[in-house]
Amino acid sequence: MNDTLREMLTRRDLLGRAVTCGLVGAVGPMAIVASGNAARDERKPLDIGSRRELFVDRLLIDRLEKTALKLHEPQLASPMQSPVNRLEYGTVIKDGDLFRLYTRDGRGAKFDGDSTEVTRYCESRDGTHWTTPKLGLFEIDGSKQNNVILHQPFACHNFSPFLDDREGVPAAKRFKALAGVHKGGGLVAFRSEDGIHWFQIQDKPVITSGDFAFDSQNVSFWSESEGCFVCYFRSWQTPRGRLRSISRTTSKDYVNWTPPVPLHPNFPGEHLYTSQTHPYFRAPHIYIALPTRFHPQRGNSTDILFMTARGDGPYDRTFREAFIRPGPDPARWGNRSNYVALNIVPTGPAEMSIFTTPFRRFTLRTDGFASIHAGADAGEAVTLPLRFKGNRLTINYSTSAAGGVRVEIQNAAGKPLPGFSTADCQEIIGDEIERVVRWKAGSDVGPLAGQPVRLRFVMNDADLYSLQFTTGD
Known about the structure:
CATH architecture of the largest domain: 5 Propeller
Number of strands: 33
Distance between the termini: 32 Å
Largest sheet: 8 strands, antiparallel
Number of helices: 3
Radius of gyration: 23 Å
Structural class: mainly beta
Shape: elongated
């Protein structure tokens, strides 16, 4: 992570915590965003290249006027026939046109890591219709006609795989996984060629620590932006009370890991389980986290939060409200009732899906976690100075029939560039995942590439979810 980005993330995180924890006084997010403007204008522009950027935090935002960041609510899809008894510490991997599902089956386990626990595997071609293949790998209850892929004490409690699809990765290590609870000594590493037959990489755990219970789903992945493997795992946060929290470690070889770093994302009194942190499939430099928030003083009830992180930066807590509420079903208001499976996956051209306990599917529009939102009255959003690569600007947006979006490109000082003012921009009306922005002279922004520019969005009754500079006709 470059120094400019690190400084901006640190400033944003500290200011955000100050506001939400009540340490700054009676000021809102608007004031906080504006408070750093003078210092930020003199820094180097943020280089976004041709990355897709989502409005899930305030990193790009300099000013919001009559607009606000809005967290969107996932919608519960039609009921599905569950391929498993219950989705527990689950993982969903999209491998080409195949969806792979992994989940724990406790089979009456008396403690975490009990020998009764197994890991089951299911498949789907569309993310909604699932099959349970008869794999014949382990004899369970007198038969091998089952979908069990792992039967190993301590490891099956929280087996959490990922697909390492980098070019040049040996076929035998195409899939990797971490698993284990405290009684097993730590997290053990596994590998697989086909995602079904798994082998332990070494006998001893690869991640250990005295005060880390690991009794949750501990996730790992290859980070394109950091150039290493990353693991987010369950730990204790002690400075503000003994709270369930999240720590992080990295590795170059998936065997030797750096000393764990506590992340302290908790707000006062807040317990966080199963961070489910993973790179977003359309913008892998942004990590999406959907932790379960545990309320021991409210009948051990739970709900699901939305957080993000960028590389080795802190978790962003722009949105403190629940992302997925328990809902009207009384069964969702108990302990262990609201957990998300690892990975948000695309299930349609404009749809992505989130799977939760016991086995439910929620959907969002592509990139649709959050947006810059404008109501009926016209408002605007202005970015900090940016540098980009490409020759056209695309946006993911939605308007009402009466709403619209116009885009202005400014110089770093905030002056509209000739030919790219809001008066020159063709008003954008509709609902599209990828729309090329056009001005009177066309869509070519290539001559501006590499220069520091600001983007000004003037909008009403509209949502702006993401932007990206690309190269095209």
